[in-house]
């Protein structure tokens, strides 16, 4: 059964604009609100459960501020949106969110910002393993140096780290390349990008900041030039080494077709491309939970590295076979549902003179693709059922273990409950033994 996709956009509620592409005649399913979150704290706790695990070497930290509010802001459902959509936890709103939307027959809503953050989150995994090999590209010193900034607000402090990093690295294009810069980009997106930038170089720098006194379709949001610019950003990935260069080559056929969606939204080729976003096949006997399914389709092309920075598919290995989706000769290897990584990165931050002068607090910044907004389709464009949009966000939370090194969190990263929910949707709507029969109809584009 194929997903009726729409590429649409919303930041907290659904937004008009962009381009809408009907993909198939699959029957959209109505919005279900079971499992929705009702506060920023709940969104963070359920999307990033390892960060608040009781097994961590420090008490569970509190969200101090985020994309959704500053210090002391009300933390209820009103903080998460404008009332037109419902928020659900997600540890990777693009890949996991797309898989669940496909399984639940939901219209998919995308912004170029979310797609770009997925690439940066993956690059964070890679840099965690290869930072020393790439040190010469960014800095000329050994070890780590401190970057300290101060601002009128903590939001200003977080935003200032991007420029501070750019002033200290040899790659004069880094900040401009990491910044989304699309017509859909918000101030919160720019801060999310800064957090991901900090994560890329955290093996070279420690970060300290303080306050100074003072006052079933796909709808691509934005404009065509945004998505063309997103594709152009791949050119710089090669600067990070052969593995990153290979990642760019794997992404190129996908991002090229994002642009083509604007040029020929009603074409067979575009519809065929979006049809191939997700497949699900049973890998083991029924009843095994998320381990029961393997996810394929070109959405897995965004997953190049594992969370320890190793290649998901070894260099030179053939990811082909009957489960692999192929675009322009590039085969996208399947991934185990229970092995899907998170779509965010975190970096330690020392908060100077917080919560009182003379006292510093160890905290973390976390940013990337977190949360999915879902809303009942209002009939616009003939759409019924549920609209689903992957969201991006950042969080500042603490206190955590002292020092400025990244401590290991308790348990696996990401929401197990989210994977269980996806598995349940696959069980109900898209039994894996039917996926193989459809593969021949999709073909290879």
TrEMBL record:
Listed transmembrane segments: none
Keyword Signal: yes
Keyword Cell membrane in annotation: no
Signal peptide boundaries: 1-17
Swiss-Prot/TrEMBL keywords: Signal
Source taxon at top rank: Eukaryota
PANTHER family membership: DUF4419 DOMAIN-CONTAINING PROTEIN
Protein name, per record: DUF4419 domain-containing protein
């Amino acid at each position: 059964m194929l997903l009726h996709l729409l590429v649409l956009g919303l930041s907290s509620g659904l937004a008009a604009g962009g381009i809408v592409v009907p993909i198939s005649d699959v029957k959209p399913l109505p919005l279900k609100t079971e499992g929705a979150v009702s506060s920023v704290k709940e969104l963070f706790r359920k999307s990033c459960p390892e960060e608040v695990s009781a097994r961590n070497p420090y008490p569970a930290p509190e969200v101090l501020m985020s994309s959704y509010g500053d210090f002391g802001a009300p933390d209820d459902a009103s903080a998460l949106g404008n009332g037109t959509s419902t928020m659900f936890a997600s540890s990777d709103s693009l890949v996991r969110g797309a898989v669940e939307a496909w399984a639940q027959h939901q219209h998919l809503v995308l912004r170029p910002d979310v797609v770009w953050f997925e690439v940066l989150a993956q690059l964070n995994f890679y840099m965690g393993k290869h930072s020393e090999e790439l040190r010469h590209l960014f800095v000329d010193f050994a070890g780590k140096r401190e970057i300290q900034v101060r601002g009128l607000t903590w939001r200003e402090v977080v935003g200032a780290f991007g420029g501070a990093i750019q002033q200290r690295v040899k790659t004069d294009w880094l900040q401009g390349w990491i910044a989304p810069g699309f017509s859909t980009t918000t101030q919160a997106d720019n801060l999310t990008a800064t957090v991901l930038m900090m994560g890329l170089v955290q093996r070279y720098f420690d970060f300290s900041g303080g306050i100074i006194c003072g006052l079933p379709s796909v709808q691509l949001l934005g404009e065509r030039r945004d998505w063309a610019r997103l594709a152009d950003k791949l050119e710089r990935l090669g600067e990070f080494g052969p593995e990153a260069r290979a990642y760019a080559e794997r992404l190129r056929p996908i991002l090229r077709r994002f642009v083509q969606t604007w040029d020929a939204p009603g074409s067979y080729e575009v519809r065929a491309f979006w049809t191939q976003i997700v497949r699900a096949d049973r890998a083991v006997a029924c009843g095994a939970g998320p381990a029961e399914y393997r996810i394929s389709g070109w959405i897995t092309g965004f997953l190049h590295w594992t969370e320890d920075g190793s290649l998901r598919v070894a260099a030179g290995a053939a990811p082909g076979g009957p489960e692999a989706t192929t675009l322009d000769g590039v085969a996208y290897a399947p991934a185990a549902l229970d092995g899907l990584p998170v779509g965010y990165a975190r970096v330690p931050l020392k908060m100077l003179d917080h919560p009182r002068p003379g006292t510093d607090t160890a905290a973390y910044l976390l940013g990337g693709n977190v949360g999915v907004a879902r809303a009942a389709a209002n009939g616009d464009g003939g759409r019924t059922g549920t609209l689903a949009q992957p969201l991006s966000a950042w969080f500042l939370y603490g206190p955590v273990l002292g020092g400025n090194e990244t401590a290991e969190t308790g348990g696996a990263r990401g929401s197990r409950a989210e994977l269980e929910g996806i598995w349940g949707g696959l069980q109900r709507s898209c039994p894996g033994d039917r996926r193989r029969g459809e593969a021949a109809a999709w073909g290879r584009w």
